[in-house]
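To whoever picks this up:

The nightly regression suite flagged N-acetyltransferase domain-containing protein as changed. Nothing in the input moved, so I suspect the structure step. Input below, exactly as stored in the fixture:
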Amino acid sequence: MQQVKILGSDVDRHPAFFRFVDAVFPGVRAEAWTMWRDRGGWTADYEVFALVHDGAIIGTIGRSRMRLVIEGEDRIGYQLGAVATLEACRGQGLARRLMDWVIGSLDAADQPIILFANNRVHDFYPRFGFRRLPQRRSTAATALHPAGTPAPLCDLSDAGDRARLLALCARARPTRGRLTARGYGWLALWHLTCGPVTLAWVPDHDAAVAFTVAEGTLIVHDVLAARPFDLRPIAPRLITRPVAAVELLIDPDDVWPAMTHSARDDSDSPLFARGAAAAIQGPVQFTPLAQT
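Regenerated output under the current build:
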């Protein structure tokens, strides 16, 4: 069995990794990963730690180097994702071997690491010094109707729109909160390429809003902007049918004051932190566009 690190420049190894994630993660298609890569998403900040047996990948951890903002302080840290082992190879300690490898290659012992786990492995990460952080949700019972000129949508098949997105992410200020991030354009590109999230431009504020609409609720996944602005008058331009509520998945104070906060039921995607990030006290709202 080999330990192999797969980088963005290792194009010949990408198909095997894409087939692996296609096989182990429901709804994650190799074709979508390939499109993300071809659009410039796999940068030097993303690397895959893989175990290879007889030429096939049997276990992985993806590691994203990130500019985290922890209690207002910028820190270079990592986020882990794609933590998986082929079903036929589970129970052999492979995930532990991978985790030891990843943690053993940190820049410093207290370097912050975060990850969003699935609901089957809550007891795995504390063995490696991770602590679960509570998450919160922010909602407002606000009836909205479509109004005004619809906000123009980002078209990621267009190279100009991709460049515009990455440039905006590079200069956008981090949202408020105990745990946030900056400069995660390549991760935002993954979500906008592979997921159901829509991105609308807000030219008047040099900004963009990532959102979905589900069950009568406008769900704002992220606001990318160089300066704070009031999202409330913009919201009617995002929707094509009435909604009865708005939910922000980021801290809303800069863009939608007076929302109601409550504990989030995050049993399907608990947040774990290690190193400097583990000292965070209180609930967090980490933007979905920066999650892996």
